[in-house]
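Lab notebook, page 48
Experiment: co-folding of the full assembly
Goal: obtain a model of how the components sit together before planning crosslinking
Operator: M.T.
Materials (sequences as entered):
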Amino acid sequence: MGAPSDTASASGARRREQTDLYATILEVVKRHRGQARITRISYGAGMPVDRLRVSIDRLAALGLLRSRTDEGRTVYDVTPRGQEFLTLYWRMRAYTEMLDPAPVVLR
Amino acid sequence: MPDLHVARGTRAVVDRVEGDLIGERNITLSAGTTGMIVVTGAVRLEGDARIQSPLECRALDCDGGTVRFDATLTASEEVRAEDTRLEVGGRFVSRRVDVGRSLLLEGEAIAERIEVGGTLDARQGVQSDSVQVGGTLQVRGLLKGRELSVGGSAQLATVDLEELEVGGAVELVSGAVRRKIRVGGVFASQGSLVYGSIEVGGVARLGGSSRGESIEVGGKFSCAGELVFTRLEVGGVADLGAGATGADVEVGGRIEVAGGLTLTANLEVGGNARFAGDVRGANLEVGGAFESRTAILSGRAEVGGSIRTTGGVKAHRLELGRKAEARGPLVGDEVVLGRGARAGEVFGRHVEVGDSATAEHVVGESVELGDHASVARVEYTQELKVGRKAEVGSPPTRLAELPAFPL
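Observation: model returned without errors.
Model output:
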């Protein structure tokens, strides 16, 4: 198990799932403490802005992210529900690893 | 020289600018006779640029492209580089650093605050009060500061931090994180670690001796060296390669310890608990099997599965679960064998052998055998109660006083 954005091991055992992408985005947004702009999230998550927007919209629709305008620019923050998703995501990843142990790969 | 404007694609030689330096795209700057470029104001770069000599300025503002400083960069106030890859070949000093895309630091770096949207790669040491990276971080020298926050993953050498927070995975060589470590996925340390608290959602692997306070891991936890803690809480599996000392341990799954475990409070394990050495503590509650050389608890010991010890288990109250099996002596003020349990030698002030339970040898002040219980030999000093169809192999012996118990 590594960073959510880089979960495939050398053997290719685990494919990057949509939930991994969502977790990656939320973790990057969290770092910016309510000031995450789309370009910063794009660099942090390693995703092009156009693809990222689709995921951001979905996360916001699900109540995992919220946006606001700050000095004319849209900035994002993780909601308590988003934080709950992250906690459960990592916990579930850990259980999956325990049941099906694969080499732990760090990016 | 007042403000200087360097046109697109120009190669300019500059020693000193009394004001700002504005560079269009694709410029190359180098110093003249002084060997250093000094700009009293800000350096504003509109795209790709290469600066071949050491540069000192009040502020650096980059707007896209790749900007490379071959030598040192000192910006007394701030560096802002939105949508930019910034590379610094020499020593880098500034107060506030904010880079959008990526930052490559080939020399040591000193700043109050460093913020990078994408990737920060530091080939030498970094000293900064606060380092915040959206994507990935690599620091090959000492990372010294107050707080580090990374969204993706981090690979670190030696650290001297107060707080470390990583969303994905972090691997470090050794050092100290004095207050808290919070990691979503994987935390791994290779050498010795001093920590305040460790909170990891997934997997935590401590490679060397580690000393600190609370550890909370959602999945797997392992420590190859000696471990000192106050509270260890693991959702899944805990593997300790050496001895451990602390207050409380709570493991949802199983725990394996290559040495002993000394606690001042409780050991609570949902599954199996196996120790190569001795266990000391206040209370013990194990849902599955328990195995150790010896175990001495000042309070209660409750094991749902089997107990296997070479030297025995001693507790104030010791309870063996229904149909559980014990190998090695059981010693307590009060010892209770659950229905259908099987034990060898049992020593207690009060011993209760449950219905259909069996034991080889029971010694106690008062002994109570449940219905259908079977004990090969019973020795008591005050009272013996025998249930329906309970069996005692040889006639019970009433002693004048209790013999010395093991442990």
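Interpretation: Residues 172 and 340 of chain B are 51 Å apart (CA to CA).
Next step: discuss with group before ordering constructs.
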